[in-house]
Design goal:
The complex is a heterodimer of chains A (373) and B (513). With 373 residues, chain A is an all-alpha fold. Chain A is built from 14 helices and 2 strands; from the N terminus they run H-E-H-H-H-H-H-H-H-H-H-H-H-H-H-E. In chain A, strands 1-2 form a two-stranded antiparallel sheet. The chains are: A mainly alpha (373), B alpha/beta (513). Chains A and B meet through helix 1, strand 1, helix 9 and helix 10 of A and strand 1, strand 4, strand 5, helix 10 and helix 11 of B.
Amino acid sequence: MSGAAENTIKKEPLVRIVKRDGATFPQKVAVRVVAILLALVVDAIFIFGVTGLNPLGVYSVMWGGTFSNPTRFSWAMRDLATLLCIGIALAPAFKMRFWNIGAEGQVLMGGLVTALVMVYFGNSLPAPVLFATMLVASVAAGALWGFIPAWFKAHWNTNETLFTLMMNYVATSIVACMTNIMRGKASSLGTLNKATKAGWFPAIAGQRYTINIIVVIVLTFAVYAYLKYSKHGYEITVVGESENTARYAGINVRRVIIRTMLISGAICGICGFLIVAGKDQTISTTSAGGQGFTAIIVAWLAKFNTFYMALISFLLIFLSRGASEISSVYSLNEYATDIVTGIILFFILGSEFFINFRLIWRGKAPKLTKEGK
Amino acid sequence: MADTQIAIRLEKVTKTFGEVVANKDVSLEVRRGEILALLGENGSGKTTLMNMIAGIYYPDGGQIYLGGQAVDIRSPRDALALGIGMIHQHFKLVDVFTAAENIALSMDAAERFDLKRVRDKARAICEKYEFGLDLEQKVYEMSVSQKQTLEIVKVLYRGADILILDEPTAVLTPQETEKLFNVIRNMKADGKAVVIITHKLHEVLAISDRVAILRKGEYIDTVDTKTATEASLTEMMVGQKVELNIERPTPENTVRRLAIHNLSVTSEEGIKLLDNVSFEAFGGEILGIAGISGNGQKELLEAIAGLQPTERGSDVQFFAPGKGRAMELLGMSPRDIREAGVHLSFVPEDRLGMGLVGSMGMTGNMMLKSYGKGRTPILDQKAPRALAEEIREELGVVTPDLNTPVSRLSGGNVQKVLVGREIAASPIVLMTAYAVRGLDINTSYTIYHLLNEQKKKGVAVVYVGEDLDVLLALCDRILVLCGGKVNGILPGATATKEEVGLRMTQLQKEVQQ
């Protein structure tokens, strides 16, 4: 064995990873700032090396995608409101460890019934009653789309990930079917009530999307408080942590699962309502635009804190608007701009690692003694 | 080979995890041809220390010497190449492979794959050290003890001459333990160095030549086993004299609180887990429940607590203080039971998976059973915080903050939080399952003391335990479960360990009728 012993004497590993015990707030900020700066440097190398453009010029165009004028900014806020709204809707379900991948479908269903109410009652009901009907109908439709998988999960422990995912396709097909029935081979219902603007959210203070934004702000606070300070929120946390603990505590697990998914689906339904009444004034199979999936990232990154969700939604919207601005101004290929924003996102997400861990390089460890040869 | 006597030597080895110092300046040596017991309480850093020798962790400071030579062990592969093999508490085997195939898995990359040669070599090892191992048996068909044997053979196959066993007896019956000890003695006779990590004193005295003691990550001393006693070892391990006596105050004014008749539980697979169990529990006494793990203890307590569906004909009656009529508990959910005013406290076996919410702090866990009080939809966090503060003070729970997730606390503190909450609910019946499992000596005695206090207050305490010495010292009556049946109820004061042990494994005639 002695031969082997001599052969395998090796040096200390080059680098070791050690878990941090809770970084302080300034440390967290510093790590993130460094991450963004590094991302910009790497991006600059990429931009200059591949396109030969001045990176600073590109960055200012990117910034302008959201901030160059009030219209741009209001569009960004509109998109932010939609994305954040779905993220908020997912928070209770995810906190309960119920993988609701079906926001897309829940939003579409909410939007579809809103549109139907606009079509069939738009010109017969007075405005307040009309909006109330649209709201109630969208909440009901979204909640129904959340309830179905929850009920199966609660009673037969079906896999909610697959179930909610499949419900998306059902919803998309229903929307396609309805547009075909109502408008023949069109891909959307077309702008609804164009002449009367019945069921359109009015512009407030010159802004078309004010109502959307206000509703989402209210939801941000409401869901935060619901999860943190209510008995329901407590039950959600316990069920999410361990169903056995929940049963031990006397919590009716089935009821909590169904109730929470009703809420999650209902908020998605409201989002569909906002999209149709406050943004598009129509419905199509692409009305949710994949935001139901992007919102999953938002909810997870924010660890279900609705205020962090607002920040992360903003970052994502800022990057995507910046990217499309770059590609149109410089007539760049979309893939190139995707790389630019992808690098920024990568660095920001990657910096999480340095918030939770630190590296010890060879020879830098606090070695106490090494004598005794 | 400068020094053939010393197999491995540690010098001032230090390991930290974040701010937690797991090992601080530990220096000790293991000699060839000896069995060294590494003794310490849970969390004293025994496993961490050995993991550094086995290449799982890398020390933050200090040096390891092998046969007088400084070595850097960076991975388990390095360790094996140096002849160091560790048998972990959790086995690392492929279930669908046979024993021989699992051994082949640990072959060197350079070695040619030849199952027959592996088998022959492994068989030779088995014969040499008297292992009873069927090399053709699949792992999933093996008992825990057989799997452990396989792990040892695997390590020996790789040519290890320094063996480290991490709490090897924790999962074994007394007979299996004796067999293992014989094998270990054979390895010692062959000149191998064996380290056995344990916190069981009688095993240390039975098998080891020397004992190294760790306390809170620091090395205390190494002593010859011949000169040591249980009391002297305990004192070194705990750092102070510990009274190893458990009180058993005479029961006074006992009142019937629970009457269980013909309780039967069948699993979803159709296996009888409890078979016509009948007994009574009285306020003012501790009823012990003995049995080999998995003989219905869990189902029994959960059935009483409203967590386990029961067979038709089962009956659990509760006698509330000051009321003549009995109340039927079966068919009620835990919440129904609580709302009916039955103060039934339950410390389940799975502390973080059932009794507590790991991600919540002490405050959040205090309200697990009481959060629903009142009509308001808003959570009351004030009262639970006050209760958490009180329990932290009274039981000396070590936690940085009342909101620190309890899953980050040490095992003893987790149990104090759970027991503290259950006792604070002023129980009439208090059921505990393996209340001291994994706890250090001091915390264990704190728990015994708390149970005795509850008994004196007139609470009916049901204590499911695994340590027969404790059951015999603490309980007024001991109910033995065997295969889901009641196999006798013995008075704690006169029952013997042999009798209880026998009833745990063999059904008695009187019950079989």
